[in-house]
Task: structure prediction
Amino acid sequence: MTANDSAIRPSTIAVGGGTVLAALGVVSFSLSFPATVWSLSGFGPWSATGLRGALAAVVAAVGLAVARAPFPARRYWPGLLVVAVGCVVGFPLLTTFALGISSTAHTAVVVGLLPLATATFAALRSGVRPSRTFWCAALAGAAVVLGFTLQQSGGALTLADLYLLGALVVCAAGYAEGGRLARELPGWQVIAWGVLAAAPVMVVTAGVAVTFEPVHLTVRALTGLAYIAAVSQFGGFVLWYRGMAEIGIPKASQLQLAQPLLTLGWAVLLLGETPSPAAPLAALGVLACIAVTQRARG
Result:
């Protein structure tokens, strides 16, 4: 969503209220993986994902009710279902699986490729033709991530890497479709209706999962679950979309470049991880490639 528009128009960030809101959105998302790890200390991956979606649906329903948001027209629902599958079900579930068997630092670097994956989907969906420079930078970013994953796993992709690659694909599709819908619907309502569309699946998943996955109700686990439900799945999007609406997608997108590095920092501070020297280098490499795509003209 954000990468596509930012890849074809250069811009600079102006400090203001919209910039602050967009930056808070990025900070909110950067904490998602550490919070997921906290939730996994008390819940299984299926339980954490199901409860995350179910609780987020409650928050979204309250927000829509307070705003008296009208029910979306039928023509919007195919796109909203893509948002639901990609951003509410697929990405949280696959990244939760990955975080259960891999480090937060490793996950942050691989998912740092998300803006480039989103740009690819957006270009295919909208018919926009980014420049050759854009595609070269996108391929370079993909090569950096692939090289990092192979180096970390001894020359072969691990199961966690496969989960993360799947997460990139489904979330990029959801972001790109959400960006298209946000041209006609308020951005926060796009994610709110997407969350509600996924609610039946999430409620059933949570109800079944808690019966066969062990549950340990600790402060850390409940805090992590509350965060990924209220902030990662909904509140962060509200900040992000509001800031984007005020300063524009290209300017807001530049702030997102800091997200992988912020997540690496949270992994050290909150989880006590010690990332390999290659992790920050790979994150910086991906950041540089994304920066090139954002200044490449279509």
Notes: Residues 106 and 279 are 7 Å apart (CA to CA). The chain has 14 helices and no strands. Confidence is low (pLDDT under 50) at residues 1-15.
